[in-house]
Design a protein that fits this description.
Length: 183
C-alpha cells in the first residue's frame, strides 16, 4: 500500500481488481476546498487512458509486476502461444495484448512479458530483430532518392534503401519500425 501523495509516474496500481500504470500525477490545490491528487492512468488490460483523483493521504494498492521471458511458438486461432522459458509452461496470450507487435513475431523470437499473478498485460520485443525480406514494393520517389517498401517474413512493411533485395536478411529496430542495416 502507498499513500496517494507518493504516487509517481511509472508505478503500477491495482484499483478495483484492474491494473493501471501511472502516466502522470499532480497535486491540485484549490482556493476553497481540500487539495487532491489528480492522476492519468493507463489501463493495462485495454490500454485506455483514464483520469482519476485521490484524496490526500488516501491509501492505494501498488503492485510490482513480474517479468517473464517467453518464446513465441505459433498462432492458435486469434491468440498467440508462447513458451515460458523459466518453467517450460505453454501460455496463450490474447491478441489484444500482442497488438501491433505481431508484425515482428516469428517462431523462436524471445519476448519479455510483464505480468501480475498469472495475468500477462504487456509484451516487449527485443529492440533489434533480424528478419528476411520476402517481397519488395516500390515506394515514394522524391527529388533526392527513391525508397522501397520491403515486406518482411512476418508481414511487417519497412522502408528500405534500393540495394535491399528479396531474400536479404535485414536488421530492424522494432521500437521505431525502421531499417537499420543489411546483415
Amino acid at each position: 500500500m502507498v499513500l496517494s501523495n507518493n504516487i509517481t509516474p511509472g508505478m503500477t496500481l491495482s484499483i478495483n481488481g484492474n491494473l493501471y500504470r501511472v502516466e502522470s500525477s499532480v497535486r491540485v490545490t484549490v482556493p476553497k476546498g481540500t487539495p487532491f491528487i489528480k492522476t492519468k492512468l493507463r489501463d493495462l488490460a485495454s490500454n485506455d487512458l483514464v483520469e482519476k483523483s485521490f484524496k490526500l493521504e488516501q491509501t492505494v494498492k501498488d503492485v510490482s509486476p513480474a517479468e517473464r521471458k517467453l518464446e513465441f511458438l505459433y498462432t492458435e486461432g486469434k491468440d498467440y502461444l508462447f513458451l515460458d522459458i523459466g518453467n517450460l509452461e505453454k501460455i496463450l496470450v490474447p491478441a489484444g495484448i500482442v497488438g501491433a507487435k505481431v508484425n515482428y513475431l516469428r517462431e523462436g523470437v524471445d519476448v519479455k512479458a510483464l505480468c501480475y499473478g498469472d495475468t500477462i498485460f504487456a509484451l516487449e520485443l527485443p529492440q533489434f530483430l533480424e528478419l528476411m525480406v520476402s517481397k519488395i514494393e516500390e515506394g515514394e520517389t522524391d527529388d533526392e532518392e527513391e525508397t522501397y517498401v520491403a515486406v518482411l517474413e512476418t508481414g511487417a512493411h519497412i522502408e528500405v534503401p534500393p540495394f535491399v533485395e528479396i531474400g536479404d536478411i535485414i536488421k530492424v529496430d522494432t521500437l521505431t519500425e525502421e531499417y537499420v542495416q543489411r546483415v
